[in-house]
Amino acid sequence: MKTVGYAAHSDDALMVPYHFERRDLRSNDVAIEISHSGVCHSDLHTVNGDWGPQPYPLVPGHEIVGVVTSIGSDVTKYKVGDRVAVGCMVDSCQECDQCHHGEEQYCRNGMTPTYGAPDRISGEITQGGYSKHIVVREEFVLSIPDNMDISRAAPILCAGITTFSPLRTWNVGKGSRVGVIGLGGLGHMAVKLAVAMGAEVTVISRSNKKEAQAKELGAKGILASSDEAAMSAAGSSFDLIIDTVPTKHDINIYVPLLDIDGSLVIVGQVGPLEEPSTAPMILGRRRVAGSLIGGIKETQEVLDFCAEHDVYPECEIIRMDQINDAFKSLAAGDLAHRYVIDMSSLEA
Length: 348
What we know:
single chain; alpha/beta; Quinone Oxidoreductase, Chain A, domain 1; Rossmann fold; 2 domains
């Protein structure tokens, strides 16, 4: 299938139009015409080569929504015209214990990311959602609930599931005390989801300048990490802290905010942190953990949860040709919303 997208051709080049071929449908494949594609901070990291060399040309995008245009002969879950979504992975071994537990993101043999990785069968490099079409095996396609606004659904496939999964894993519910470090693309979804689960939520930020925004999202307020007195007074006051900071930073100031048996879960930075001190962990039986997206079952769960509770990312819809400006904005600082590309703006 001939299609067009926007690709990076090197780690220092602008994104430009790119014509390429999607694979012919296999028997278990679903072909999708993409209507909207979310822009994730990890797209920027990847195309810049921050996480290692990439197989350019590279079409990013792993927050994908659209409509089924054709199906393989063995597909049973979807039909032409269905509204569907694709997230951060498009394949896994389907045979290991993690795949059998619905945790394909932790596949023992390695899951296949939506872009920048060899296809498990052909070896060709996967290309993502900054394009008009995509072909994905049935098991990694998700259903968009009938009452969901498709134009605002895309970021749920990464920002949504990345924050929903630890909230579910750590059993957040009514009365849970949750802190969210950072109010960017991930952080604002963490706030909305935790509030919808019944938690008392506080945003932890360097200053109070986003306090009104935090309260609009449902948080009770902001704890300014630059205010030493406020940080000291907030000691042992959280059951769970979701750390969405996407760069190297110091977690030592946040760990004492956890109550005994509390956990700080890192979902933003992939890579080094400032040297941690074990003292607050040992003295309060506190934990520092990490979490990677979620499995297909849990990703469907977050889509359904968001539809049921009317939880949507804060979205700024952009044209495809505005992607380089969007990347500049992402690089400049945390935005408390997600860019979403309207793929109808991409000329075939």
